[in-house]
Amino acid sequence: MYVMFILIGFSLLVALTFLVVFLWAVRTGQFEDQYTPSVRALFDDEDRKQTNDRIADKPDNQEQRSMD
User: Fold this and answer.
1) What is the structure's pLDDT at 51?
2) With b meaning 16 or more CB within 10 Å and e meaning fewer, what string describes 1-23?
3) DSSP 34
4) What is the pLDDT of residues 2-60, one digit of tens each?
5) CA separation, residue 44 to residues 34, 35, 50, 53 (Å)
6) Is the model's pTM score more than 0.85?
7) Contact indicator for 57, 51 with CB cutoff of 8 Å
């Protein structure tokens, strides 16, 4: 029975901690940008394609050795 009181107290402490962190995040503006996350998925493929093109343009070590 004594353990149950400790667990209830601990769970209330954890819940209060999460509430304080959530309120801090709301007040500092962490949730104000609602447009960018919806558009980020549209531009993600272009960034990967540019990165892959740059990697493909560089010869690997075997190609460099065969040219020497």
Assistant:
1) 64
2) eeeeeeeeeeeeeeeeeeeeeee
3) -
4) 999 999 999 999 999 999 999 999 999 888 887 887 787 777 666 566 666 666 666 55
5) 17, 15, 10, 15
6) no
7) no
The pair of three-digit structure tokens given for residue 65, joined into one six-digit string: 């050795």
Place of tokens 């493909």: 56
Length of the chain: 68
Q: Is residue 63 very low, low, confident or very high in pLDDT (cuts 50, 70, 90)?
A: low
Q: CB neighbours of 25 closer than 8 A, spacing ≥ 6?
A: 31
Residue 56's CB is within 10 A of a number of other CB atoms, namely: 8
